[in-house]
Description:
Layout: H1 7-26, H2 33-44, H3 50-57, H4 61-73, E1 77-81, E2 89-93, H5 97-115, H6 121-140
Antiparallel strand pairs: 1-2
Amino acid sequence: MSNPPTLGFVLHEVARLLKRRFEQKAKALGLTRSQWQTLAYLNIHEGIQQGKLADILEIESITLVRILDKLEERSLIERRQHPNDRRVWQLYLLDAARPLIAEMQVIGDATRAEALAGVSTADRERLLRILKTMKGNLAEA
């Protein structure tokens, strides 16, 4: 008899399926998953240094440089030298990125609505509280 799936397995599968469904819906935006993830995090952390963004995204700096080059070619982001350290680049969204981010947010909302269909508001709130607690526990460990 097989064992029931573990919490980690189910969380991983849900995250994978959410990403895949988002990608299906976002395909028309003409961005790769790594590009839209970069824009999404940059929207939250505008002005962040390249190295710190690579850490947040959990990718190598050289990989991020390639992603940023593509986004810069599309006039979606710009790199600015840090005012006190010429070796450091800070990242900013350009106006052309804002409508894309708004579309990404609509697609994200629709994807979450699909995933949470049939789940009550109370259960959604409880789930989010539990996941935030788990995240905090693991971050402190």
